[in-house]
Design goal:
Layout lengths: L30 H29 L1 H11 L4 E4 L4 E3 L6 H27 L5 H25 L5 H8 L5 E2 L7 H23 L12 H4 L26
Antiparallel strand pairs: 1-2, 1-3
Helix pairs in contact: 1-4, 2-3, 2-4, 3-4, 3-6, 4-6
Length: 241
C-alpha cells in the first residue's frame, strides 16, 4: 500500500470541475474590471466624436444659408400705392425657394454623411445621432441666415421705399419649414446607413478550425468521455464467471 498522491481534503489541480480562482484582490484588477474600464473609455470617445461631428455639421449650415440666399428664386411684387400684389400671378417663384433649400439640404446631407463615414469608419449610434442633430441645427442656421440676407422683411416699408408701380423682391421665406428642416438629417442618415452597409467593417468569421478533432468525430472538449461500444471482454470478471 502506498499513500495517495493527493490528500482527500485538497482538490486535484487536474480536476476539470474545480472552481476557478477569484480575480482581483492583491493581484490587481481582473479582466472584468479591465473590460469595464475599456467600455467606459470607448463610450467617452464615441461621445467626443459625436459632439465634434455635431459642431462641424452645424457650422456648415452657414454655407447652406449663403447658397440658399444666392440661388433661391425671387418672388416679384408690385404696389399700386394702396396694396401690394404679385407681379406675375402665374409664376412659380413662390415655391422655388423651398425647392432650392430642399435640394441644397439633400446635397449637404449626402456630403456630410460621406465625410463622416470616410474619417470615422468605426461608426456607432452616437455618431449617427450627432450627424442627425448637426443636420437639424445646420438647417436652422441656414434658414435664419438666408432670411436675414434676403430682401427686406417689411413688405410695406419696402413698397413705399421703391414707389408705386416698381417691381421689387418679396422676402425670402421657407413655407414648408417642418419638412424642409428635416431633409438634411434624413438624407445624411440614409446615406450613412447605406455606406456602412456596403463598405463598413464586418464582424470576424468564427474560427471553426480551433478544435479539428470535432470534424473527425472526436470527443467535444469538456464533455467527458465519449460513450461507445464496449471493448471485447469488457465487464467480464477475471476468473471468467
Amino acid at each position: 500500500m502506498t499513500a495517495p498522491l493527493t490528500p482527500p481534503h485538497q482538490p486535484s489541480s487536474n480536476d476539470p470541475w474545480q472552481i476557478p480562482p477569484k480575480w482581483g484582490g492583491s493581484g490587481g484588477p481582473g479582466p472584468g474590471v479591465l473590460a469595464e474600464s475599456e467600455g467606459e473609455n470607448d463610450r467617452r470617445s464615441d461621445l467626443r466624436r459625436a459632439a465634434a461631428v455635431t459642431l462641424l455639421v452645424t457650422v456648415s449650415g452657414v454655407v447652406l444659408g449663403l447658397l440658399w440666399a444666392w440661388l433661391a428664386s425671387k418672388v416679384p411684387l408690385i404696389s399700386d400705392g394702396s396694396a401690394v400684389y404679385l407681379s406675375d400671378s402665374e409664376g412659380e417663384e413662390a415655391i422655388g425657394a423651398d425647392g432650392t433649400f430642399v435640394l441644397l439640404a439633400l446635397a449637404f446631407g449626402a456630403v456630410s454623411a460621406a465625410l463622416v463615414f470616410w474619417f470615422q469608419r468605426r461608426g456607432g449610434i452616437a455618431l449617427v445621432v450627432g450627424l442627425a442633430l448637426g443636420g437639424l441645427l445646420g438647417s436652422l442656421v441656414a434658414w435664419r441666415l438666408g432670411v436675414w440676407l434676403g430682401p427686406n422683411q417689411d413688405v410695406v416699408a419696402h413698397a413705399r421705399a421703391v414707389g408705386k408701380g416698381v417691381v421689387f423682391d418679396a422676402p425670402l421665406r421657407l413655407r414648408a419649414k417642418g419638412a424642409a428642416l428635416l431633409v438634411w438629417s434624413l438624407g445624411a442618415m440614409a446615406v450613412h446607413l447605406g455606406l456602412t452597409a456596403l463598405f463598413g467593417p464586418r464582424d470576424p468569421e468564427p474560427e471553426w478550425g480551433a478544435f479539428p478533432e470535432w470534424s473527425a468525430g472526436g470527443p467535444v472538449p469538456g464533455a467527458g468521455p465519449a460513450a461507445g461500444p464496449a471493448a471485447p471482454g469488457a465487464g467480464v470478471p477475471p476468473d471468467g464467471s
